[in-house]
Write a structure and sequence with these properties.
Length: about 260
């Protein structure tokens, strides 16, 4: 796996790092494929009770899906990418292990959506959160229009999705996006894991299944995929993503 680093730090706890620090760990198709294959493998590890997900380097957890890769996609390709991302994040959400997101640095777009598919989120003082998709002429496509409102409420979710600004970790904690802020999120995630692994393992699995049961039923992820794909093949998406690669602000026309 080129873009992932996995270390089993004890019999019951593993740490997965998204490893593309040069591109702020943004998720390209290859990385998503690797995460997908990785999840299928660790599913078989019955000794693993807790998976911690974090980003390599100190700058980013994940700064979103890879914009350069998405830039020239048409709506069918975008739909496939969005469906695939949703499939992978659903696997994380329903993995029969507790998943803790240790959020270091930027946690944006698809990165927020990855964090939202974790069970518990720990941040640091330098974490920054946001759904900046509208600045690119698109909408979130890996579940945020559904999961974000469940976690922080519809009003705040709309604010983050419609305005696209970043928030700091203090605000993320206040609105319930983060469970905790600490100096070292991975270290704290390990502390939490060490508590969880002392509890009844079957009880933890059953609790996760029960919490997720009705929650899963209310996620309209397929509808999000459709709305997401509608944004591609538009001038707004072309301008938004072209502007990002040219390191300038997008200029959208009146429509
Ligand atoms: N995609 C591709 N490359 C990226 C991304 C990204 N999301 N984020 C950063 N990079 C690259 C930069 O282009 C740069 O590369 P290069 O050196 O080749 O120019 C490198 O990483 C370092 O980044 P910066 O120089 O920009 O670092 P700064 O410290 O100046 O800025 C920011 C950091 C503010 C985080 C800035 O990089 C940024 O705004 N990144 C984009 C954030 C963003 O918009 N994320 C949302 C993406 S859209 C999305 O996630 C949709 C999810 C659903 C997808 C569904 C699939 C179809």
């Amino acid at each position: 796996m080129d873009n992932l680093i996995y270390e089993k730090i004890s019999n019951h706890v593993g740490v997965l790092k998204i490893n593309r620090p040069k591109y702020l760990n943004s998720l390209n198709i290859k990385t998503l494929n690797e995460i997908n294959m990785f999840l299928d493998e660790i599913k078989k590890d019955n000794d693993l009770y807790v998976l911690i997900i974090t980003g390599e380097g100190d700058k980013a957890f994940v700064a979103g899906a890879d914009i350069k890769e998405m830039k020239d996609m048409n709506s069918i390709e975008a739909m496939e990418f969005s469906k695939f991302g949703n499939k992978v994040f659903k696997k994380i959400e329903n993995l029969e292990k507790v998943v803790i997101g240790a959020v270091n640095g930027y946690c944006l777009g698809g990165g927020m959506e990855l964090a939202l598919s974790c069970d518990i989120r720990i941040g640091s003082n330098n974490s920054k959160f946001g759904q900046p998709e509208v600045s690119l002429g698109i909408i979130p496509g890996f579940g945020a229009t559904q999961r974000l409102l469940n976690v922080i409420g519809i009003g705040k979710a709309k604010e983050l999705i419609f305005i696209g600004d970043m928030i700091d970790s203090k605000e993320a904690l206040n609105i319930g996006l983060l469970n905790k802020i600490v100096d070292n999120p991975v270290e704290e995630a390990i502390n939490i894991s060490n508590k969880i692994i002392q509890k009844g393992p079957i009880a933890i699995k059953q609790a996760k299944k029960s919490v997720n049961f009705s929650y899963n039923k209310n996620l309209a992820l397929d509808y999000e995929v459709e709305c997401f794909a509608n944004c591609f093949n538009t001038e707004d998406q072309k301008e938004g993503m072209e502007a990002f690669t040219q390191k300038r602000k997008a200029e959208f026309e009146n429509r």
